[in-house]
Amino acid sequence: MTATTTDRGVHLTGLTKVFGEGDAAVHALKGIDLEIASGELVVVIGPSGSGKTTLCNIIGGIETATDGTVTVAGEDISKTKPSKLSDFRRDHVGFIFQFFNLIPTLTARENVEMIVEMTGRGDNTQVAAHLESVGLGDKLDSFPAQLSGGQQQRVAVARALATDPDILLADEPTGALDLPTGRQILELLQELNRQGKTIIIVTHNLSVGQIADRVITVVDGDIESIKTNETPAAAADVTW
Amino acid sequence: MKATTKKAFRDLWRSKAQVIAVAITIMLGVMIYIASAGAFQNLSASYQATYDRLNFADWTATGGDTDAIAQAALDAGATDAITRTQVDPPMLIEETKLVGRTIGVPTDAHPSINDVDVIDGDYLDDGATDQVLLEKHGAETFDLEPGDTIEIFAATGWVEVTIQGVVDSPEYLWLARSSQEIISDPNSFAVVFAPEESVQQWFGVEPNQTLVVVPNGADARVATDATQPWETDTGVAVSDAMTDAGASAVESQEDQPSNATLSEDLKGFDQLSVAFPALFLIAAGVTSWVLLTRRILQETPVIGTMMASGAKRGRVLRHYVFQGLLMGGVGAILGVALGIPANSAMTSAYTGFIGVPDTVVLNYPWMLVIGFVFGITVGMLGALGPAITASHIAPAQAMRPASNSSTPGAYSRWVARQTWIPVSGRMALRDIVRSKRRTFATMMGTVLALILVLTSVGMMTSILSAMNTQFEDIELEDATAVAQAGVGAEDALNDVDGVETVEPTVLGQVAIEGPDGSYKTTLTGYEPDTQMHCFFGPDGEGVSLPSDGILAGEFLAEEIGVEAGDTVTISTDAGETEVTLVGFLNEPLGTSAYATNATASALLPDEGTEAFALAFDEDADRDEVRQTITQLDGVVAYQDVRAIVAQLDQYLGLFWVFIGMMILLGTVLALAVMYVTMSVNVVERTNELATMRAAGVPLRKVAGAVATENLLATIIAIPFGLVLGVWAAAQFLASFSDDLFTLEPAWGVWTLPAAAAGVLLAALISQWPASRAIKKVDIARVVRERAA
Ligand SMILES: Nc1ncnc2c1ncn2[C@@H]1O[C@H](COP(=O)(O)OP(=O)(O)O)[C@@H](O)[C@H]1O
Ligand SMILES: [Mg+2]
Question: A202 alpha carbon to ligand 2 midpoint, in Å?
Fold first, then answer.
């Protein structure tokens, strides 16, 4: 890999996160060193409370590190002020949440357009294409209430893609979905990865690890193991 | 502490800014209620204290053989009766000649009825003959103090007397010569108390007044349902006895001009003191409703979970009502605490303004209790609706992640096709109908704010406009002068520097009688083509004086049951005459009658005087004109119209204080209501906003989108608010109108646009805390809470 592509990845050294102070302090992350290359599909696995969400949020610039360096897509965000993190997120990351957080009064298309309009990044003429790419070409003008959970999550994926991020962060993306629907979302993410997106999926669901290039297991704020899949499974074959 | 109680406190703490705003609106409502209702009671009590201290007469009889009348009163059960002499002679006070009033009092002791309160100097020396006590208003108007002298025109000519003291009198707390002249130029009237012997001697008259006090026993009153001593059986018997003994008129304390004016002044205030606080409390109820509804919406999954684990509906209901109770309780306690000093401040401000000698400040326990209960009730009622909703949440709601609204309807689909509007605009347009409750709440804030501001401002503009109409469009004269007939006063007046035109006029007091009653008022005559007065009919069209018959203020129609064209009976000291009431006039101030000079002089007794209406040059020095004219030979009375305006302002003093306070607090309330509704709007949408922020949308844009929506709701609400505000103002005005003020809603061109702009501005200002709330939205926390 070239230096440039490495720069577009994630580079963590000694990442520490402490919530609270004194007796109440919770050491959510205890000095994580991790490299995620551009174009990789990584699944972060671990029991509940192990620090997965915290890791994901820090990479995405929603939370800030207590210590250590965080370089994402070439930007060192460990010292960035929260007010500037907004720009970082706009330029480099896309989030997919467990609950889709769509605006109920906007159609699928508008939910995506909204982000393009409000961030000033991305291209409104591409919105329909994004929705088509997530398989919602025929639901452009449907409102969230008219869509199934899986379809709503696809809108959320399209919304995350709209700003053309370097990295997609998905925290428990299948958590609110049943098996077949969840599997479809994973297929979609895998497909996006094949097209070149860096994808980080956070989940407590061990089975999801099968589709990853690498599976990072976090336990109690530390990386317990990193397992490389020589041949990741197709999402369609995953069961849980 | 129970977990649910802890939760209630923490919930309130979590939205402390809004809770404070709700508590403040409740506090304001309770405070204003206690202050204004308390002040109203205290003002009556303050008058009463002065009346009691100075033994204000229950009955005042005029004419007849006063000794016989006094004896008749005592025989009929009066506790005390005294006689005295009262004469209205010309006086010369500091260069100004006026018709004053001289009242006889004993020199060896204070009078036992209608006593005076010496506020400067001393009471009359025993046996004094040329000392007087000057009533306070005169001392203030002419800047006189003990030791100064004034002249009184006695039968034998001018008598110089020395002011021994300046006094307050229960009869002149409000300076009024008679019931018809309750608002007049203070430069044209002054009251002095002189030795009774001297008064009789100066004017060569016998005592002509009998003052009576009747028993004030509670028993006597309860027995007859009477609330005042003169209404008791004994009170009525005393009055009858005096009439039988030859009194030509018997006037109760209630009808005494000063007292009647002050009660009338307070009466309009009585209604305001309840209506305005009510508006505040309604607003408080709405804001607490908005706040708690939002919380319940947000907590739906939690409530669902509680339900799923077997919580009883009543328990959930109580939990949320308790929160309302807490907010109401805090507001009510603060309201009571602030209401007490506010009551005292308001009472003192008014007694000081009017010059009531005694200031009674009491806090009425029942009023404090009512205020407190109102405050708490409002908080609870606001919570009740949302609490009921909460208690009906199905357990299944617990499993539902988002409170997904129902499928958008035709309107939303239509908006979706308006692709020329930016998406954020489309979102705002649709959000308006998305949560009807939220939009309704935002609109309600706007509407309430407008009602509050418009009623107060509307009353102000209407009264100002009424005064303006009266003194700029209707009464064109600057002053009136009365002179002895045949002294050539007209030419002399014309020669006065500053006087531009002089026109003969006729002035007199009349009683107009119709089928339903009789009404005492002034009858003024003018030249048929007068330049001194414009006449406007009820439709606002100009009318001219009829060659035969009279015109009179509209209020008369209902008061005595007459229509235009009817014949009425005019009674004066000269007797009774039938005359046609040709038409009605629309005059904001007073209810007067008008006729041509010829008709008026025929109706009024000949008093050997002639009157003139005067118009001044633009740059006339009014004080100089007054002094010159009142010193002219034969001039006996003079009234400056401008001075009447000042008197009116004083009459409206309490009203202005109140209106000023309402405009100020109305603005505070408008801001509080707006703030709550707007910031709740933000909190309700935390997820959406956090999602946008997570995607890197700049704060300014997120805040802009929310502001657009809030302002849109405000704009939609403005027409409703304007209509309701104008309507409410009309109601207030109607209840304030009487024979003295005929108020019609008047809105300056700028008022409504300015009110609308003001509310919009308040909404805009409220966006500032709203956007701070957005800024503070902890994206990570939201993401975590949502991820559960
Ligand atoms: N805002 C916070 N304040 C205090 N502790 C926190 C906060 N957020 C997370 N934690 C703690 O950090 C640890 C890691 O949390 P999280 O990253 O959410 O775990 P996971 O996503 O793996 O379940 C947990 O022990 C959690 O309690
Ligand atoms: Mg997690």
Answer: 7
CA distance A119 to chain B (A): 5
Q: Are residues B399 and B419 in the same domain?
A: no
Is a pLDDT exceeding 70 seen at residue B2?
no
One domain for residues B270 and B155: no
Q: How buried is residue B783: exposed, middle or buried, by Cβ count under 10 Å (0-12/13-18/19+)? A: buried
Same domain, B301 and B332: yes
Size of interface A-B (CB pairs under 8 A): 120
Phi and psi, residue B739, nearest 5°: -70, -20
- Asked which of B198, B224, B259 is the last residue of a domain, the reply is B259
What is the residue whose two structure tokens read 């009808």? Answer: B255
The one-letter amino acid code at B558 reads E
Please give the single-letter amino acid code of residue B747.
Answer: W
Mean pLDDT score of chain A: 88
Number of domains, chain B: 4
Q: How many domains does chain A have?
A: 1
Segment A186-214 mean pLDDT: 92
Q: Which of residues 98-137 of A touch B (CB under 8 A)?
A: 98-101, 103-107, 110, 113-115, 117-119, 121
Does A8 contact chain B (CB < 8 Å)?
Answer: no
Mutate to test the pocket of ligand 1, among A17, A18, A53 (most ligand atoms within 8 A of CB): A53
Residues B357 and B468 in one domain: no
| H or E element that contains B627 | helix B622-631
- Residue B266's domain comprises 1-57+260-404
For β-strands B191-195 and B131-135, DSSP reports them as antiparallel
Its ipTM equals 0.71
- Note the pTM of the prediction, 2 decimals: 0.69
Q: What's the rounded Cα separation, in Å, for the pair B294 and B673?
A: 15
Q: Ligand 1 mean position to A26 CA, how many Å?
A: 8
Report the separation in Å between the CA atom of A193 and the middle of ligand 1, taken as the mean of its atom positions.
28
Confirm if B163 and B134 have CB atoms less than 8 A apart.
Answer: yes
Contacts of B788 in chain A (CB under 8 A): 98
Which chain B residue lies closest to A85 (C-alpha atoms)? Answer: B696
